[in-house]
UniProtKB/TrEMBL annotation:
Alphabetized Pfam families for the sequence: NTP_transf_2
Keyword Metal-binding: yes
Protein's recorded name: Nucleotidyltransferase
Keywords, in A-Z order: ATP-binding, Magnesium, Metal-binding, Nucleotide-binding, Nucleotidyltransferase, Toxin-antitoxin system, Transferase
Superkingdom classification of source: Bacteria
Keyword Nucleotide-binding applies: yes
A molecular-function term among this protein's GO annotations: nucleotidyltransferase activity
Length: 117
């Protein structure tokens, strides 16, 4: 994937918030960023790691969302369904995930990280 633009955390979260209504069409309940982009350590070879909670998880919604993220950010995307997190990774991912304001799991869930964007 061609990484033409180097995105930062604030830009990614803003883009997700800006497209909130479109993301709802994929059944997105919450969508957050974790990994190197959330930590601010991404480089030109980094992929973007997203954690998603889908209202009705389906192959089509998952793939449509993944393709939309790849097209929007022009980056390779790792998209992880929250319900499929392995126990050994769950605490690490949930502690660093940063959600877009309009795509946060609150009030029912964990905000993650030290910040609510």
């Amino acid at each position: 994937m061609n990484n033409e633009k180097q995105w930062d955390l604030a830009e990614i979260l803003h883009e997700l918030d800006r497209n909130y209504h479109h993301l709802e069409t994929f059944g997105v309940r919450s969508l957050g960023l974790f990994g190197s982009y959330a930590r601010g350590t991404a480089n030109t070879n980094s992929d973007m790691d997203f954690l998603v909670d889908l209202e009705l998880p389906s192959f089509n919604h998952y793939m449509d969302l993944k393709f939309w993220l790849e097209d929007t950010f022009s980056h390779a995307i790792d998209l992880v369904l929250i319900d499929t997190l392995k126990a050994r990774l769950q605490s690490v991912i949930l502690s660093e995930v940063v959600y877009a304001k309009r795509l946060s799991p609150l009030p029912r869930g964990h905000l993650g990280g030290d910040q609510a964007h």
